[in-house]
Design a protein that fits this description.
Length: 479
C-alpha cells in the first residue's frame, strides 16, 4: 500500500516536472541543406547537447510532384542522402543512416521534426480532400502507420514543420486536423510547427480566415525574424524599431487554437545565412531577453537557420544554446502548463491585427502601432518561383522575403543563402543531361534556373515575373 502511494506521487511528480521542462525555452536548428558547405551527420548535432529540437529539411514537393507520378513527397537532404527509392520515384529517397540517427537523437531527448515546403519546390493542395489523403500518406511513411515505403526505416519522427512559402492556403488546416486525429491514437507526444515570416500576417500561413495559424493547432511557431523590415538586423539602426515579437505574442494569447502555443525567435546563424537579419550574440540576447520577459508564457526559445552556417561562424548555434539554457534559470519561464499536441483544441478566437508594435527592453513594454506593411516583395533563400495553379503551387523562397514598407530599410544586396559544393555554374539556355554536383544551381536564361539533383539537372524553373536570375558561385538568386 505504501509502495503504491509512493509510486503514485512519484508518477505525478514526474508528470509535473515533464510539463515544466516542456514549457522551458528551447533551442531549435534546421539541418539537411548544407547551405554554407558540408554538414556533419545528424547525430553529431544531437550529441553536442546544444539542441532540443532539430528540423530536417526538406520534403519539397507534395502531394504529387510534377516530376513523377507517385503520391509520395520528394525529399532533399543535400549530400546526406541521395539514394532514390526506385527509377519510378527518383526523388523519393531511402535514408537508413538518417533513420538510425533519428532514433539515436530521440534517445538523447532531442525532438526530430520533418519540414514540408522550403525554398525550391512544388507543393500545395487543390482541395481539403487531397490534403487529408496526403496526411494519411505522411502518417504511414514517417509515423506509426502501416505504409511499406518508409524513407527513415523503422524510425518515427516527432512531428512535422510547415515552411510554406508559396501557393494558396488551401488544405493546410485539413492536413493538420487529419494528422492530429492520427496523433490522438498514439501514446506518444507528436508536434506540429510552422515557420512564418515575421511580417504579420504571413501571406501563406496567416493568421487569417482559413489559414493554418488561425484554424490549425500549432505547438511551435518559428517566426523568421530576418529578410524583412521586422528582422533582427534592422532594429538597432532604425529610429522606430520594427522587431514585432509583441504582435506575435498577442496573437499567441488571443488568436491561437492552442492556448499554450510557443513563439520562437528565428535567427540566421551567420551573415551568409540570410540576405538580412544576422546579429551578434549580444544584440540577439538583448532583443530575446526583452521578448521573453514581456511574454514568458508565450516565448518558446530561439530557432537557428542552420547547422551549416553555424559551423562556419564559430559554432554560433552553441552560443545560442548556452544563452537559452541560462534563460531557464534567469527568467520566470515554465510556470504555465505544457502544450500537448494531443489535447482537445480550444475554440479559436479572432487574431489580433493591430499591426506592428515594439518590444521595449523592460518587463512592461509599451506597444507602438505603426502602419501595416504592404504585400511583400520577396528575395529567395534559394530562388524566387512564380505562382502556379493550386494543384502544384511553387515556393517563393525558404528564407524569408525582404519587404518594402513605410519605414526606412537598411539597403542590403540580395544574397542566396544556399551556397553549394563546387560544381557547374553554367548559364546555358536549357537544362543539361550532363553530370553535376548535387545541390548546385545555375541560371538557364535571364529568368529561369535549374537545380542539380543526384547528379543531373532538374527541369527549368522560373523566377517571379519581373525578377532576373543572377548566378553567384554555385547557386543563384532572383532579384
Amino acid at each position: 500500500m505504501a509502495f503504491t502511494a509512493l509510486s503514485k506521487y512519484f508518477m505525478l511528480a514526474c508528470v509535473f516536472m515533464q510539463a515544466v521542462a516542456s514549457s522551458q525555452p528551447k533551442t531549435v536548428i534546421y539541418w539537411g541543406q548544407e547551405s554554407d558547405g558540408k554538414e556533419k551527420p545528424l547525430r553529431d548535432y544531437c550529441s553536442s547537447g546544444d539542441y532540443d529540437i532539430i528540423v530536417l529539411g526538406f520534403a519539397y514537393e507534395f502531394p504529387t510532384p510534377s516530376t513523377h507520378s507517385s503520391d509520395y513527397p520528394a525529399l532533399n537532404f543535400a549530400s546526406h542522402c541521395e539514394t532514390p527509392y526506385n527509377s519510378d520515384n527518383p526523388q523519393l529517397l531511402i535514408c537508413p543512416a538518417i533513420g538510425a540517427d533519428i532514433t539515436y537523437c530521440q534517445q538523447l531527448g532531442v525532438q526530430i521534426l520533418l519540414s514540408f515546403g522550403g525554398g525550391v519546390g512544388r507543393y500545395g493542395f487543390s482541395s481539403d480532400s487531397q490534403a487529408v489523403a496526403f496526411a494519411t500518406t505522411v502518417w504511414n511513411m514517417f509515423f506509426e502507420g502501416t505504409g511499406l515505403i518508409r524513407p527513415f526505416g523503422n524510425a518515427i519522427i516527432d512531428g512535422v514543420d510547415l515552411d510554406i512559402e508559396g501557393g494558396s492556403t488551401t488544405g493546410y488546416v485539413a492536413f493538420i486536423n487529419k494528422l492530429r486525429s492520427y496523433y490522438s491514437t498514439s501514446s506518444r507526444n507528436y508536434f506540429i510547427s510552422s515557420a512564418p515570416q515575421c511580417f504579420y500576417p504571413d501571406g501563406r500561413l496567416g493568421p487569417g480566415t482559413g489559414t493554418a495559424l488561425t484554424d490549425g493547432w500549432m505547438d511551435y511557431v518559428f517566426v523568421q525574424f530576418y529578410n524583412n523590415y521586422c528582422g533582427l538586423e534592422f532594429t538597432p539602426y532604425l529610429a522606430t524599431p520594427q522587431f514585432n515579437f509583441d504582435t506575435w505574442g498577442k496573437w499567441a494569447r488571443t488568436g491561437s487554437v492552442n492556448p499554450n502555443v510557443k513563439i520562437f525567435v528565428g535567427a540566421p546563424a551567420s551573415s551568409r545565412a540570410a540576405a538580412a537579419g544576422f546579429v551578434t550574440m549580444p544584440v540577439l540576447q538583448s532583443m530575446v531577453t526583452a521578448a521573453a520577459t514581456a511574454y514568458p508564457d508565450v516565448y518558446g526559445g530561439i530557432m537557428v537557420w542552420d547547422c551549416s552556417n553555424s559551423d562556419n561562424n564559430n559554432n554560433y548555434g552553441h552560443s545560442v544554446a548556452a544563452f537559452v539554457r541560462s534563460q531557464r534559470t534567469s527568467l520566470s519561464i515554465g510556470s504555465s502548463s505544457s502544450s500537448s499536441s494531443v489535447a482537445t483544441p480550444s475554440t479559436p478566437t479572432s487574431p489580433s491585427t493591430t499591426g506592428r508594435v515594439v518590444i521595449a527592453p523592460t518587463p512592461a513594454p509599451t506597444p507602438v502601432p505603426v502602419q501595416v506593411p504592404v504585400t511583400p516583395i520577396t528575395t529567395s533563400r534559394m530562388a524566387q518561383i512564380p505562382s502556379l495553379p493550386p494543384v502544384v503551387p511553387l515556393t517563393t523562397g525558404s528564407v524569408k522575403p525582404v519587404t518594402t514598407a513605410s519605414v526606412p530599410v537598411v539597403s542590403v544586396p540580395p544574397v542566396a543563402v544556399v551556397p553549394k559544393p563546387v560544381g557547374s555554374t553554367s548559364t546555358s539556355s536549357s537544362s543539361s543531361s550532363t553530370t553535376c554536383t548535387a545541390g548546385n544551381m545555375k541560371c538557364l536564361t535571364s529568368e529561369t534556373y535549374s537545380m542539380c539533383d543526384r547528379g543531373r539537372w532538374n527541369a527549368a524553373q522560373s523566377c517571379q515575373v519581373g525578377l532576373t536570375c543572377t548566378p553567384s558561385g554555385n547557386f543563384i538568386y532572383c532579384t
